[in-house]
Amino acid sequence: MKRMLAMVLTGVMVFSLTACGNSSSGTAPASNNNTESSDMSASEEAPAEKEEPSGDPVTLNVTTTYAGEDTNAANYQDAIAAWQEETGNTINDASGSSTETFKARVISDFEMGSEPDVLFYFNGVDSNPFVEAGKVVSIDEIRQTYPEYATNMKDGMLGASPVDGKNYSVPVNGYWEGLFVNKAVCEAAGVEIPGADTTWDEFMEICQKIKDAGYTPIAASFAEIPHYWFEFCIYNYLTPATHNVVPGSVDDEHGKAWVDGIGDMKLLYENGFLPENTLSATDGETFQLFIDGKAAFLIDGSWKVGGIEGATDEIDNFTVTYIPGKNDRKTTDIIGGLSSGWYITRKAWDDPEKQKTCVDLISYMTSDEMVSKFASVSATALTNGTQVDESQLSSLAVAGLDFVKGATGMTGAVQDQVTQEARVPVFNGMPDIVTGKKDISTAVEELLGLVEAGK
Q: For labelling, which of 134, 187, 275, 436 has a CA lying 20 to 30 Å from the CA of 31?
């Protein structure tokens, strides 16, 4: 029962947030007394009196990424069915799996003027085209008419647009990345599990002891998935405030951090802390080493909780902790984020029959209760945090709750700002880099050149 529930509730993360708000009903006030700042754009000026909606049932066109293998696809279908029954309104659902083809379809719909009324979509660079075109409505503008809109969320975690720094979407759940631990391997090697105060140098000593005891310290495929170690090794030369920035050149602060961080990855390889076949193994093969008690540590995302629960009958043998830090990065500074959210399109906002219905739908889908159902113990922006029955979770899932409650800082993954093509010189080239066949600075310079060429 516990494992099955936790697999549905994949992605273990919640922030310990100060209680200062509740979920909103989305009900509009009789009048709006809020005033605008003097530098407000024309599109965000207080609207003129709008024609009152008739009160008849409304049909909304809705597109989301809750489809296919998404673990919340069933939750979404249940939620919209309940909302339709409760309100008498209808949803025309055009959701799809978040593939590149789906992204292209969404952008094309906006370009052709056939965008949906409500959209659950990415809030980073993928949303730039329709934000730049003024085809979605900012939360600030919505709050001019509906002051309680999304007030159960922390504004600083809503996911501001790279275009203008404004918030356009209301998030549901996100992700985190942490160090999963096979307790039995650590015990057999006579080492303590790394904790909130463990430094990078101490972690290297732990890895050496594990290696000396005949085990592999770190389960990682540098042939297929060098991503996580790339991220955290670079993070160790930056901070939560500076990590998520692509270098301008190999010689600037961030470029040097990338070179130094990848240098630490090379040391992991040279010290023999990785699987013997790390330069040819698949991610699945190295994960199995971890599950089978042949490797101690594995960096992965919150979604891996369900994968571990499904791969073992001894879930209590596994836990999650922080990746040890050095320099200005605290060990408890983590990588995570809220990458998607609910948008209201300009076309629907300007339709008096649909405006309030869109607000009501999103308020329903982003209430504390609904976000808790979708996110469970994953990242949220909820002021009050998620409402989770820990007795129904595995010990690994509960460890994930504690992991995030103790986090001191969070940043997004910088690799998410680099296209798949631009990553090739470093990610695909990692075997040559760690074996010394390719210079680290040269590989980083090539990556940055591809980033620049793609602008």
A: 134
Quote the CA–CA distance of 244 and 69 in Å, as a whole number: 29
In contact, 271 and 201? CB cutoff 8 Å: no
Contacts (Cβ under 8 Å, ≥6 apart) of 102: 65, 96
Please give the residue range of the domain that contains residue 445: 176-336+400-453
Is residue 19 one of the residues assigned to a domain? no
Q: Which residue has the tokens 């592999």?
A: 216
Note the pTM of the prediction, 2 decimals: 0.70
Residue 5 lies in a domain: no
Q: What is the pLDDT along the chain (455 residues), one digit of tens a residue?
A: 433 334 333 343 333 333 333 333 333 333 333 333 333 343 344 444 444 445 689 999 999 999 886 778 889 999 999 999 999 999 999 999 877 688 889 999 999 999 999 999 988 778 889 999 999 999 999 999 999 999 999 887 787 887 898 999 999 988 899 999 999 999 999 999 999 999 999 999 999 999 999 999 999 999 999 999 999 999 999 999 899 899 999 999 999 999 999 999 999 999 999 999 999 999 999 999 999 999 999 999 887 888 899 899 999 999 999 999 999 999 999 998 888 899 999 999 999 999 999 999 999 999 999 999 898 767 788 888 778 888 888 999 999 988 988 888 888 889 888 877 899 999 999 999 999 999 999 999 999 999 999 77
169 and 205, same structural domain?
Answer: no
CA distances from 362 to 31, 41, 373 (A): 21, 24, 15
Q: Tell me the angle at which helices 73-87 and 355-365 cross, rounded to the nearest 10 degrees.
A: 130
Domain count of the fold of the chain: 2
